[in-house]
Design brief:
CATH topology of the largest domain: Metallo-beta-lactamase, Chain A
Number of helices: 11
Helix content: 25-40%
Strand content: 25-35%
Number of strands: 18
Number of domains: 2
Strand order of the largest sheet: 6-5-4-3-2-1-18
CATH class of the largest domain: Alpha Beta
Shape: globular
Mean pLDDT: 96
Length: 304
């Protein structure tokens, strides 16, 4: 099975601490690299993770709070110094575009590649990126400013060839791809052999949802139903639920409740408030609701 991995570069919240970097992740799927959020320190973490800067195809920015986007212009500048030639696609709320354009004009003249901006409508769930192997959907979140999560969905693979049936009907190699794509086979005698006899179902696609930052949003579970891996912010523990609501964040218990309602395969907690010295309190609270909960930490690599 092709790799589908999440590289955690930073999982802290707004206030810097010696323990955590600001929010940033890299989604690795079938050899392609996509970045989600780009807080300060992201470039350093890319180096530590041994992820090639040149492999980042696109950057998805959830919202315009500094701990999620202050590292973007610095990274783009570094791409230029490294001689990047491939376009960099940036998906973000519309408010970022004039700011990014001004920064590019001031700091990044003479780039050898284009920065292509794609506006994300944070009010609706929609496919914002698609290629042959995956789609990325926006996920409306409930934060103090326009904010979107992202749902990465791998497409189901083509149907698997049943070699013994291919040999039985002496089907030429030139027809294998057509049969993988669903074609029937017609024998020289005119008999139609249904595709279902020649193949088995393709491998179902895997999925990953990134949800940071947001208030507790019950309907989010419907939008990500059955997701294999969920990253959901857990800025506070439940004893600070009132503070979480005030500042449009979630508790670990609320994150676990979303995971349980969504019937997710696994939950990653993150975006921890700097006030907590021992993050195991998040884990204990979440596990009481959703046992397959885990703490995110820098340089963690999680297979989907």
């Amino acid at each position: 099975m092709e790799p589908f991995r999440i590289h955690i570069l930073g999982c802290g919240s707004a206030l810097p601490t010696p323990r955590h970097f600001a929010s940033s992740q890299v989604v690795e799927i079938r050899g392609k690299m996509f970045m989600i959020d780009c807080g300060e320190g992201t470039q350093v973490q890319l180096r530590h993770a041994h992820i090639s800067f040149t492999k980042i195809r696109a950057v998805f920015i959830s919202h315009l709070h500094g701990d999620h986007c202050f590292g973007l212009i610095g990274m783009i500048s570094t791409f230029g110094m490294l001689g990047r030639t491939n376009d960099l696609h940036v998906y973000a709320p519309q408010a970022l575009q004039p700011l990014l354009d001004a920064q590019l004009e001031l700091f990044c003249t003479g780039l050898g590649f284009k920065v292509v901006f794609h506006e994300v409508d944070t009010t609706r769930q929609a496919v914002i990126y698609e290629d042959r192997s995956l789609t990325v959907e926006s996920l409306p979140l409930d934060h103090r400013i326009a904010c979107s999560g992202f749902l990465f969905k791998e497409k189901e693979t083509a149907r698997h060839i049943l070699r013994d049936m291919i040999d039985c009907y002496e089907i030429p190699v030139s027809q294998i791809n057509n049969i993988k794509l669903g074609a029937d086979w017609v024998t020289p005698d005119g008999e139609v052999i249904p595709n279902e006899r020649l193949t088995s179902p393709g491998t179902p696609g895997r999925s990953y949802a990134y949800c940071s930052d947001t208030r507790y949003l019950p309907k989010l579970a419907e939008r990500i139903q059955g997701v294999d891996l969920l990253y959901h912010e857990s800025t506070y523990t439940d004893e600070m639920a009132d503070r979480a609501k005030l500042y449009y964040h979630s508790t670990a218990r609320q994150a676990a409740t979303i995971a349980a309602k969504a019937q997710a395969g696994k939950l990653l907690l993150g975006h921890y408030s700097a006030r907590y010295e021992d993050e195991n309190v998040f884990l204990q609270e979440a596990k009481a609701i959703f046992p397959n909960s885990w703490l995110s930490k820098e340089r963690m690599v999680v297979d989907v």
